Amino acid sequence: MAYGVKLFNSSGVELVGRFVPSFFVDYITSGSGTRTYAGVVGKSLTACPLNYITAMGVVNTAAATVSVSGNTLNYSNASPECPILVVYQ
């Protein structure tokens, strides 16, 4: 079962999206490639390569790289140690 909130004003305009600054789209943990996402009105696609630090220090894995063009994401070297967080903001 999914949970969520729908909030409308008296004119029927949806309000939740106006209060939330970003929308989680994807979390990529492997490989390289291209992904295209449906657009979100008024938001821009942004990708954030992450590099985790463990108790043993920084993970010695090649950093993930990413580029965004419109609603299309090109990425490489994604891994569980260096995932890519994709959001609309």
How much of the sequence lies in strands comes to 35-45%
Question: Helical residue percent?
Answer: under 10%
Distance between the termini: 26 Å
Oligomeric assembly: single chain
Structural class: mainly beta
Rg over CA atoms: 16 Å
Strand order of the largest sheet: 1-8-3
Name the features.
mainly beta, three-stranded antiparallel sheet, 8 strands, elongated
Describe this structure in words.
The structure is a single chain. This protein has one domain (20-88). The protein contains one helix and eight strands. The protein has one helix spanning 16-19; strands at residues 23-28, 31-36, 45-49, 53-54, 57-58, 65-69, 72-78, 84-88. Helix content is 4%, strand content 43%. The mean pLDDT is 83. The strands form three sheets. Strands 1-8-3 form a three-stranded antiparallel sheet, with no helix packed on it. A three-stranded antiparallel sheet has the order 2-7-6, with no helix packed on it. Strand 4 and strand 5 form a beta hairpin. The two termini are 26 Å apart. The protein is mainly β and 89 residues long.
Topology:
Elements: H1 16-19, E1 23-28, E2 31-36, E3 45-49, E4 53-54, E5 57-58, E6 65-69, E7 72-78, E8 84-88
Summarize the structure.
The protein has 89 residues and is mainly beta. It has one helix spanning 16-19, and strands at 23-28, 31-36, 45-49, 53-54, 57-58, 65-69, 72-78, 84-88.
